[in-house]
Every structure is written in C-alpha cells, then in structure tokens.
Amino acid sequence: MSEVSPQGGLKRIMRVRDGLAVTVGIVIGAGILATPGLIAGYMGDPWTILGIWVLGGVVAGLSTLVLAEMAAALPNAGGKYVYAKAAFGPVAGFVAGWSEIFVTRAFSGAAKAVLIAGYIISLTGRGSVPILAGVVCIAFGLVHMGGLKTGTAFQNVTTIVKVLILGAIAAVGLMAGQGRGFAPDAVFTPETSGFLGFALAYQAVAFAYYGWEDAAKLSEETMDPGRSLPRILIGGAVAVAVLYLLINVAFLNALTPAEMAASDLVAQDAIQSVLGGRTGTLVVIASLLILVSSANVNFMGLPRVAFGLARDGLAPRAFTRLDDKGTPTVALGFITAIILGLALTGTFEFLIRFMMLVAISVDSMVLLAFFPLRYKRDDLERPFKVPGGPWLPALAVLLNVGVLVIIVATQPALAVGGGVMLGMLVIGGLTFARRDPGGENAA
C-alpha cells in the first residue's frame, strides 16, 4: 500500500525500479540519437569523440553523487529547486525551478517532439512537423492526466523496449562492424575546432546526459526516499554512461567520424552500412520508440517542479491543485502548453545549445548548495553521504564552472541571451519573494 506524502497530498508509489526507468527513460533519447553526428563533426578523431563522452559521464556521475545526498536529506517535490531554496533562499529556488520549466526541460521536451515528428514524416513521407509535434505534446499531456501510476507503467515498458533496442544496435555495430572509425586514415580536421569545437561538442554531450537528476523531482512520490533516491540517481547515471560508451564504440566500428558527421541519424546509417537492406527503416521505427520513452518523462517530472514552486509561494497557487489520482493537473496543462509552443518554433541544435548554457549555469549554483546544506544544516537526516568529504563535491563544481567559462568565452552572443534569461528569472524571484506573506519562503 502506498504512503501519502505529508507535504501536500502526493502519493508515495514510485519504487526503485520505477525511478531507474524514469532516469534511463529521460536521459537516453534525443541526445544519443541526434548528437553523435554533431559531436563527430566537432571532434574529428575517434578517441577524442570517446573522450568527450567519458568527460560528460564523469561530470554527470560526480554531480549525481552530490545531488543524491541532497535529495535523500530533502525528499520534497521539485528536485534541484528544493536544494537551491534551502541553501540560498527563495530567489535562488525560483531561478532553479523556473529555469527548468522555461528552459532546460521545456526546450528538451520540445526538441524531442520535433524529432518525433520528423521521424514520423521520414517513415510516412507526409505530414507537417509543427502539426505532428503539437499532436505529440497533446498526447503526452493526456497520458499523464491518468496519474503517476499510468505514467510510470508506460515508462517502465518503453524503457525496457528502449534498452533492448539500443543494446541490439550496439551489439550489431560491435560484432559486425569493421573498425572503420578507428583506422588511421579515418581522422579528419573539423571546420570548427579548438575551444569553440570543444564547447559545441560538450554542449551536445551534456544534452545527451541531461536528466540524470530527474527522478529527484519525484522525491515525494518515492517509497523510502532516503534509501531509494541514491540508488536510483547513481544507478541510473552509471547505466547510462556505460551504454553511451558502448553505442559510440559501435558507431565508430561501423562508420568513420566524417560519415557520422554527415549523418542525420547515425544509428540508422551505422546499422544499414553493416546489414544493408531495409534495416535502416527498422532503426527509424526503433528510434521513434526511444524518443517516445524519453519525452514521456518531461511531461512526468516538470509538473512536479511547478507543484513544488507553487506550494512554496513561488508560482501560481493553482499549480498545487491535484485530482483524485494525485496528478497536478493545472501544472501539467501549463507545462504541456509551454512545450507545445517551443515545439512549434524551435530548431534542434539552437534549442540544445541555449538549454545547456542555462542548465550548466543553474547546476553550478545547485551543486554549490551542497556546502551550506552539509555544514550548516545539522538538523537534516542524511541517509546517504557523498564519500570523500568536500573534495568530490568541489571537483564537481569546478568541472561545471570550467566548462561554463569555455562556453561563455567562445559563444558570447549565446551567453548574452542566457544572461538575459537568467536575469529575468532573478527579477521574477525577487518579485515573488517580496510577495511572500509570512516568511514561509525564508532561507
């Protein structure tokens, strides 16, 4: 029998396996399908390509360790917003929460809807990307009106299918490929290289890994969160990193970096180069299933962020409204509308570049929250603690900040846009904080 969260009526029904499905489901999707070609085009060398995927995995893994301690100590709906607010006050919480709603998760969901629409058109030969992307968004909204049990059941099934498909693609590439990408003459010199090439490639890698923390948004709906959340977060991050490396080795076994860079769907071209025939069509169908699984979690996690913000007075109170299944329906409708709007107007590569600039900025702040929470909040019970004292969290912060500096230095126009967005969020946070009637949101 499920428990009811004492915070606000959300039901504790998510098990470890559900949380792992959420993590793997949202992380593995548009990123591994759409970014390997972009990354190969910026790197040009097989070992450099694999190296930047490893770097992305290390940053995600270290960040996950830090977040796991905070999530276990503060298992409330909202994820990163909760930790920023507890450490730095309501303005920081507002920035962390609304940056996910308006930028990181909404842009991600929109990019996935656009890709799903494009794949449908490539299979059927007809249709409009905006119209199909809109239908996809509305369909996901309706699925999640059925409640978290419906959403997690759908996620569990599609995640199993996804892992099996990607495992099969990796197996075919590893066993039947000829090692073409690792040949000495396979290396090419990219048009964009140096720090800018690194920054662009890393933004694509970071997008592919992004979502490693998403299960924390469902903390209040997780059974025994103190024990379960660290297992979900860390287990999910490790599983994704291993699978990504295997898949990229498989791609490089079948294609050269130049061929990957010229491909719109590397998985399709890699399998077709090995098996021939109509196997490419089968890969497109499989890719659709993968994207559906990944996009599903955007519609599952984001309404819980809006719910947590509203409960603390940092979003419209209507977002706390739950139906009899425990679903924050108004928040779900709002999120669906935002993702739908972006899906009708955005382009994939710009969406992920802008998204990751804002995401890495906010994540650096959230990771810094570890230190005041660890050393000033003795009242918090910590079922899980990051090993290595302050050194591993400090390394996680330094890696994120270092990458952010390179991105800002090499893409000043994008940095200005990201800075304007973050500045608007700070102004919004200050406005909501002043409206707080009685100190409920005090730091």
Q: What does this molecule look like?
A:
The protein is mainly α and 443 residues long. The protein has a single domain, classed as Amino acid/polyamine transporter I, CATH 1.20.1740. The protein contains 18 helices and two strands. It has helices spanning 16-27, 30-34, 36-43, 46-73, 80-88, 90-124, 129-144, 148-176, 194-209, 225-254, 257-261, 266-275, 279-311, 329-345, 348-368, 370-376, 391-410, 412-435; strands at 3-4, 11-12. Helix 1 packs parallel to helix 10 (225-254). It is globular and about 60 Å long.
CATH class: Mainly Alpha
Mean pLDDT: 81
Instruction: Report the portion of residues in β strands.
Output: under 5%
Give the SSE string.
Answer: EEHHHHHHHHHHHHHHHHHH
Tally of individual helices = 18
Major beta sheet summary: 2 strands, antiparallel
CATH architecture: Up-down Bundle
Question: How many domains comprise the coordinates?
Answer: 1
Strand order in space, largest sheet:
1-2
Pick out the low-confidence regions: 437-443
General shape: globular
Number of E-type strands: 2
> What is the CATH homology-level superfamily?
Amino acid/polyamine transporter I
Structural class: mainly alpha
Q: End-to-end distance, in Å?
A: 35 Å
CATH third-tier fold name: Amino acid/polyamine transporter I
